[in-house]
Amino acid sequence: MSDSDDDVPTLSAHTLAALQDFYHETRTRPDQDRMESDPFAVGAVEEDWRMSQFWYSDETAALLAEEVVREAGEGGRIACVSAPSVYQKLKQGVVDGSDRVSAFVLEYDRRFATYADDFIFYDYNEPLSLPSCVAPQSFDIVLADPPYLSEECLSKVAKTIKYLSKGKVLLCTGAIMENVAKELLDVKMCSFLPKHNRNLSNEFRCFINYPSSLLWS
């Protein structure tokens, strides 16, 4: 990884402008009004530490959303496995091209059922227990953020990823899972450092199995 500022992934001009407009608008409204008027805002559903929920910062969620839109292509299908903040950013309309893809959120937390047909209940302990409407290899890219930093959890989530994905995988997890992730999914670590709204004690990284100029693999 280079120390040069030129090597730091940046949001597209369209996404950056849209985020700035969003920030200006949210700063002028009370928090409750903001959640009611924008159900797709990151944080509209509060984190629940009992379910190991830690939402990405707006900038990280937007950059990851931009990445999966690019890789899915026009008309593509995106699965966000235990990564609701990326799904929310895709639906917010701040990412260029997000209106030309389909996105779904696979989550154990039924509060996300408010997203209707985009919500798919998911328990990583039953990695292949999915609705019959979810066909194998039906997603152009799968972005997954396993809830726990353990080989057992990642192994089960990997089964889900392999079932869902046509090939492309973007895994977000702790750096300590690098060897296990490589063994299970043949992914490699990116230099991009994702950020969360709350500081995590473990170093967090992204792993992919395809060439990416945005994440600088």
TrEMBL record:
Keywords: Cytoplasm, Methyltransferase, Transferase. It catalyses: L-lysyl-[protein] + 3 S-adenosyl-L-methionine = N(6),N(6),N(6)-trimethyl-L-lysyl-[protein] + 3 S-adenosyl-L-homocysteine + 3 H(+). This is EEF1A lysine methyltransferase 1. Its EC number is 2.1.1.-. Its main location: cytoplasm. It holds the Pfam family N6-adenineMlase. Belongs to the class I-like SAM-binding methyltransferase superfamily. EFM5 family. It is found in: Cytoplasm. GO terms for biological process: methylation. Protein-lysine methyltransferase that selectively catalyzes the trimethylation of EEF1A at 'Lys-79'.
